[in-house]
Amino acid sequence: MDSHDQRAIFTVSQLNREVGLLLQQGFGRIWVQGEVSNLSIPRSGHWYLSLKDAGAQLRCAMFRNANRLLGSPPRDGDEVLVRGRLGLYEARGDFQLIIEHMEPAGEGALRLQFEALKRKLAAEGLFDAERRRPIPAEPRCLGIVTSATGAALRDIRAVLSRRCPLMDVVVYPTLVQGERAAAGIEDAIARANLHGVADVLIVSRGGGSLEDLWPFNEERVARAIVGSHIPVISGVGHEVDTTIADLVADLRAPTPSAAAELAVPDLRDRMAVLRTLSSRSRRALRALLQGRHRELDALHHRVTLAHPGRHLEQRAQRVDELAERLRRLAQGRLETGSRHVDALHARLQGQHPRQALQRASVSLDQWNATLTRAANRTMDRHRNRIGSLGRELDAVSPLAVLNRGFAVATDTDQRVVRSIEQVATGDTLRIRLADGTLDTRVEDRSPQGEQD
After folding, report:
1. pLDDT tens across 187-241, in order?
2. Is 12-105 a domain of CATH 2.60.40.10?
3. What's the CATH code, domain 111-264?
4. List of long-range contacts for 51-60, beta carbons under 8 Å, 24+ apart
């Protein structure tokens, strides 16, 4: 037998199908992490993309029945973690991963946990302003929960040495990064409350990535801050960083240094206040002495005014003043009476009968003229109306018809003849013309259709 007949020969489709089965059976479902690129979403709703890292890329497909559970699609550049099964797109022979589940990787996953915890604690009211306790303005002792060797503690001590070097400080050291940091922070807050000497507590660490700051996003730390009997100021990371600890703390500071500034007063400000108070006290004492001097001068002046000679002078001056007032009052009364008499005289002149007759004569002339004009207008209207009615009567008068050449025939009984049927041959008729009447006798009757 020819050896050529013993060879296993695959078609391209068969080979691709077999390779696809081997990939699925050999790997099963696997997890892959990478950066999304070349995302394409056709009208079918399926997602086609590539996952890449620094050295390679992998074609992927996520069908609609799987991606609809995610809501919004990822964006190019997102770092994701996917679970799926390897396969082969037989039509092109392309190696690909069929994605069944996708979630953000690294910081993205932490961000999802952050948002979930944030929603949970907000629903419990732990972020409400009404829950927050006031920070004491004059604390006697400051507690600090942070790393004993971190930059945050150095920054806080530098601020304290500048603003309030005499402040009592107790440090409750703890890890602020790593898996055991959350438990350590929780324990440090509990120790500070058990110790009970601090009036205000700073929970702090320096800046870092989201992973570095993650202990301050743990629920146990948030609940420890909420349960603290000591008011808590959070100073975690830099200004752009926001943690769950910031949201539940009684006061949030953007940095550790800012937390220290918010926690303690500035002695320089206090000295300035003392200097201001001292200056105010000196001014008040000076004003008090000046007031007492003025009172002494007033008493001396009163004694001087009480002298008998001074009293007689004042009485004489008062008599002169009253005499002048009496003279002005009498003169005013005389002037007022004179004006009143003049007014009465003018009113009397206005009420004289001659004046009334003159006014009545003028008024009568005015009314006569008004009635004459009204009568003339009325007669003109009636005259015009009568002329108009006469013209209308002339238009419909029988005499006007006769003047146009017509005649009216009446029989012996003075009845108007309107038809030849009313008369017979030999009857006498009277014809009325415009300027008189004619008596005539009927010789013949001819209907209108028989006239020549």
Report:
1. 999 999 999 999 999 999 988 877 788 899 999 999 999 999 999 999 998 877 7
2. no
3. 3.40.50.10550
4. 51/80, 51/82, 51/97, 58/32, 58/34, 58/95, 58/96, 58/97, 59/89, 59/94, 59/95, 59/96, 59/97, 60/84, 60/96, 60/97, 60/98, 60/99
